[in-house]
Amino acid sequence: MIGTYETKPMSIRHEIKSQLAKLLATEDLVVEHKKVQTACFNVHTRVLTLPLWEKASNTVYDLLVGHEVGHALFTPDEDWLDKVKVPPQFVNVVEDARIEKLMKRKYAGLAKTFYNGYKELNEDDFFQIEEEDISTFNLADRANLFFKIGNYSSIPIEDGEESEIINLIAASETFADALIAAEELYKYCKKEKEQEQKVADFDSHEMSGGSQSPANDIVDTNDSSSEQEGESNNSQPQEDEGSYGGTAQGDQTQVNSSEDGEPEVRTADSLEEKIRDLVGNAPYENTYVEIPKLNLDTVIAKNSEVHTEIDTSFEHQQKLHNNHAKDHGYDSMNLYQESDAEFKKFKTSAQKEVNYLVKEFECRKQQISMLVHQLLALVF
Predict the structure, then answer these.
(1) Which of 70, 87, 161, 321 would be 103's cystine partner, CB 3.0–4.6 Å?
(2) What is the pLDDT of residue 380?
(3) Rounded to whole angstroms, how far apart are CA atoms 168 and 148?
């Protein structure tokens, strides 16, 4: 059991969404609402941390909670980076589609929540595609849009290899299936990116070829630059050539990722950025503490013990009163006489109603007994 201490009372909606997450997960998850930008789930401690989505509507909030619980239920805790060489964004696209499919299958009512939630996000342009030509997006972006808002937006998917990859994503049932589909998606987008780069390089070469510079001038320029590069390289210490993670290598890595680069999923970045904007600027933080385990045998008293303590206390109070009256020369009185009289009066007034309820209970009991006998007679 978890208790919450707050500098300001937690919104009732947060408590309701916490219960929703627990019910969807079919286990007593620990749900914490904290001042964080993104949701996360610790599979070891079973703690689901949710941002304070103060600006989200109920529908969007339910969508986000359902999505995160889907990861808690169906995304395994394993280091998959050694299995496939795929950027996490591509795995996330496929895994989001898979876990949302499984959540809608497990809870049929969530299908409407996901539908309306993504519709609202799309209308508010959370994917930032309002003035964009979606057909120019890479397949990863179009796949992300297809599985999230494809029900009410036309997402172009070409026949052939693209359709096969989309079908592969849609058919993913296990995380292993998702990794295979993500790898195929990444390879296709990588190939698209390389083809685009070749076209761009060719166009750039054609434009530079329009200058009337003699060919030997170009060769001389290249040779001189090569010589300068050689001199520059020779000026470096010999040991740096075999070093790992040096400045030159780091610069080269940045150039490759940004220019030759890796394909990106821009719609995923846009959605994540917009969802972060839903987080409120609450001036307080929730602090969660665990209630210690108690020995109920030593904490909960028996009913007879409670009444014994009450009788002992009443007797002690009456004794003190009697002694005080004797010492000060006045007649003592029964301290509880009036209370006892009021209780007896209440008991007498309620007796008629209690007797009526007892009679009704006995009649119902007799009717049920007769009905059971009739049913048994019909069966046997």
Answers:
(1) 70
(2) 63
(3) 16
